[in-house]
Write a structure and sequence with these properties.
By secondary structure, the protein is mainly alpha-helical. It has two domains: about 45 residues, no CATH class; about 180 residues, MetI-like fold, CATH 1.10.3720. The chain contains 14 helices and two strands, in the order H-H-H-H-E-E-H-H-H-H-H-H-H-H-H-H. The protein has a two-stranded antiparallel ribbon. Strand 1 and strand 2 form a beta hairpin. Helix 8 crosses helix 10 and helix 12 runs parallel beside helix 13. It is globular.
Length: about 325
């Protein structure tokens, strides 16, 4: 197992390096530059635009050939220097350090909400197959999967914030992270991000549970006189968990890279998604590359953890 983990970590570094290189090159060969955001102010002050542009590009090495820029960036990255953010006028590490917690809390709470409610509702739907509860859960899951997350977020804001006035229309950073006020203003974003995943978990859990309920070991367990709660919780759910782990962990990676970003933009949450969104429009190379690299490592780490969980849930699986 140790050799397998080391091998996977090595492959993860190679993959991350490849994605970093591609992202770096694509940003650099584009027609725009981070300096462009200063041009209007420079022109308004009557300064010579070309001379100021050359001075700024020379200061940050943007006037050098792309291969030299790449080698310089990689050298600084290995020393823990992630570059300078033109859009925020601060080091990239400081920018990420002050915003990652907003993304983390959103992803964590929405994942917990989706897993608990989705798996629980899926189990209930399977146990109550072909009843009103099952039909209601199926309809809810189909609707939840079909609704785009950003549209759902806008509708929740319109109904609960604008019309009813129950929640704010924007995210207030003045509240402490670990406070009830902050938790309250995260309700709508968590619902927006979690409902899509929740609906999928209902379908996958129901399918996995029904597949195991039809197997012979369930009939044997019931014939032995075991209670229905024991049969469902100890035997059926345990065998249904393995495929669910794959779905949940894969979905977690997609939430980190996509869903959370859109949700942050809709609700004005200053997390890494909002930072990345602003950096793209500001041509802020260093921030875009850094956020992409962080997201890549998170997805690779999630995949590794998924494989390790497999060995715990199913001792027959070995990575030798």
């Amino acid at each position: 197992m140790r050799s397998y983990i080391i091998k996977r970590l090595f492959y993860s570094v190679i993959i991350a390096w490849g994605i970093l290189t591609i992202t770096f090159v694509l940003l650099r060969v584009g027609p725009t530059s981070p300096v462009d955001r200063y041009i209007l102010n420079i022109a308004a002050r009557g300064q010579d635009v070309d001379s100021v542009r050359q001075a700024i590009e020379a200061r940050y090495g943007l006037d050098k050939p792309i291969i030299e820029q790449y080698l310089l960036y990689m050298g600084n990255l290995l020393q823990g220097k992630w570059g300078w953010s033109f859009s925020a006028s601060q080091p990239v590490m400081d920018l990420i350090g002050s915003h990652w917690i907003y993304s983390f809390q959103l992803v964590l709470l929405s994942s917990i909400f989706a897993i608990i409610v989705g798996v629980g509702l899926g189990m209930l739907s399977a146990v109550k197959q072909n009843t009103k509860i099952d039909y209601a859960a199926s309809i809810f899951s189909f609707i939840g999967i079909s609704i785009p997350g950003f549209w759902l977020g806008l509708m929740l804001i319109l109904v609960f914030a604008v019309y009813l006035g129950v929640f704010r229309t924007y995210y207030d950073t003045n509240y402490p992270i670990w406070s009830l006020e902050n938790l309250r203003q995260l309700i709508l974003p968590v619902l927006t991000l979690g409902i899509g995943s929740l609906a999928g978990y209902v379908r996958y859990t129901r399918s996995a549970m029904l597949d195991n309920l039809r197997k012979e070991f369930v009939t044997t367990a019931r014939a032995k006189g075991l209670s229905e709660r024991t049969v469902i919780g100890k035997h059926v759910l345990r065998n249904a968990v393995l495929p669910l782990v794959t779905i949940i962990m894969f979905d977690l990676g997609s939430i980190v890279f996509g869903g959370a970003y859109l949700t942050e933009i809709v609700f004005g949450i200053p997390g890494l998604g909002q930072v990345s969104f602003n950096a793209i429009f500001a041509n802020d190379y260093a921030v875009v590359v850094a956020v992409t690299l962080i997201g890549t490592f998170l997805v690779l780490f999630i995949n590794l953890v998924t494989d390790l969980i497999y060995t715990y849930l199913d001792p027959r699986i070995r990575y030798d």
